[in-house]
Design brief:
9 helices, 412 residues, alpha/beta, Rossmann fold, nine-stranded mixed beta sheet
Length: 412
């Protein structure tokens, strides 16, 4: 772990050089580096060089919910317009420091309009306490109405040039109950998946089936084959084969491509503040959009080489076309499956530079107690954390200390 006082000299080459130095001198030190800095997000982001990080994962303080008693904090602006404008200014700098093939994930919740006291826990004995405050009454939103902050933020991000790829719903099965009797209890938050460019690094994530899927004939409506008249190659052969055999069902051994509703229970951390998100929520973006291996010379990530082959699971002759590949990641089966698409990892791509590889860099500009950094280091990535509250910096240090030895970063 590196605690640094100035980001001016923090470059990719510094990350690589210090990693090599540590590996050569300390065999017990992991090959990944964590950089923590105490300061407000906008100021510290401006100190970082352009196109440094591979992935940004963060959760800004929600508007009008808590007072962390920290000068310069975000979330207590008198209007939601001012709050969103501040966030857009911060994410403008995020966009600058993000690589062109990088991704940005933002976890954001909503709030209700009104004058009620914000959520607090002043009896919290350990960690960081927060105090109550009185919400400002909105002049444009009626009392008791949702403010639609996540939607307003997402639209503003799109207007400023970001590409919104997904609006993920984080469903919390064990979410906090509500005392309100005149509405339904909210048990989800938004996870926005933004990219800087149309082409970006992404490793497809899969999930196991929990419901009976459709047969391919129903799924792709083979009575409308004219829609695929311009399709060529293996896809055309796959479609023609499935049209001839609509009674057969298909299955991918990896499951199906992950959907956009993620059912993940909350994970408390007794020493931290309220807004600690669970590690499982962060593992998905890290694995999907931050490369584990990047060439030290050409900066290209290594990609998994996947081979997909169809196998029979019931006796009978299905013909030569039963070996057709790559259909499985769209079509699935139940216990009555006859063909299974087995996906096998054959290794990783290689740029041929032969100079070594480093893990991608994850940035969290609202670090809190360090959950993003914890997941990053557990998955062999590097991490940069920015946090305005010095108490949270100390919490993050204590939380990350068991995973990596602490040293002073040497920048030259």
């Amino acid at each position: 772990m590196y605690l640094i006082d100035d980001f001016v000299n923090l470059t990719l080459s510094a990350v690589i050089d210090n990693r090599r130095r540590l590996l050569s001198s300390n065999s017990d030190i992991m090959s990944d580096c964590i950089f923590l800095h105490n300061g407000d997000a906008l100021t510290e982001l401006k100190r970082l060089p352009s196109e440094l990080v591979d992935c940004v994962i963060c959760s800004p303080p929600y508007w009008g919910l808590r007072d962390y008693k920290t000068e310069g904090q975000i979330g207590l602006e008198p209007t939601f317009e001012e709050y969103i404008n501040k966030l857009i200014a911060i994410f403008s700098e995020v966009k600058r420091v993000l690589k062109k093939e990088g991704s940005c994930w933002v976890v954001l919740g909503d709030t209700y309009s009104g004058m009620k006291v914000g959520n607090t826990n002043n009896k919290q004995k350990n960690g960081v306490n927060t105090d109550s405050f009185v919400k400002q009454k909105s002049e444009t939103i009626p009392e008791k109405s949702l403010c639609m902050i996540p939607s307003r933020f997402a639209i503003s991000m799109i207007d400023s040039g970001w590409i919104l790829r997904n609006d993920i719903i984080w469903h919390k099965p064990n979410g906090m109950p509500s005392s309100a009797k005149d509405r339904f209890t909210i048990d989800y938050e938004h996870v926005f998946f933004f990219t800087k460019s149309q082409k970006y690094y992404f490793e497809t994530q899969y999930e196991q089936l929990d419901s009976k899927p459709h047969k391919p004939g129903n799924l792709l409506a083979f009575n409308h084959m004219d829609n695929f008249k311009n399709t060529s190659g293996y896809m055309k052969r796959n479609l023609e084969y499935m049209q001839k055999h609509p009674d057969r069902v298909w299955y991918n051994s990896n499951g199906r491509i992950k959907r956009s509703v993620w059912k993940i229970t909350t994970q408390p951390y007794k020493m931290a503040h309220f807004a600690v998100y669970p590690e499982k929520l962060i593992e998905i973006p890290v694995k999907a959009t931050c490369p584990e291996f990047i060439c030290d010379k050409c900066n290209k990530p290594r990609n998994k080489i996947i081979e997909s082959v169809l196998h029979q699971t019931r006796p009978g002759n299905h013909g030569k076309d039963s070996q057709l590949a790559d259909v499985g990641h769209r079509l699935y089966s139940n216990l009555d499956k006859r063909l299974i698409a087995e996906r096998t990892e054959k290794g990783l791509s290689d740029c041929g530079c032969n100079t070594g590889f480093h893990g991608g860099i994850v940035l969290d500009c609202f670090m809190g107690s360090g959950t993003t950094g914890l997941v990053a280091i557990k998955n062999a990535r590097n991490f940069i954390g920015i946090e305005i509250n010095a108490d949270y910096i100390r919490l993050a240090e204590k939380r990350l200390e068991p995973y990596i030895k602490q040293e002073k970063l040497v920048l030259t």
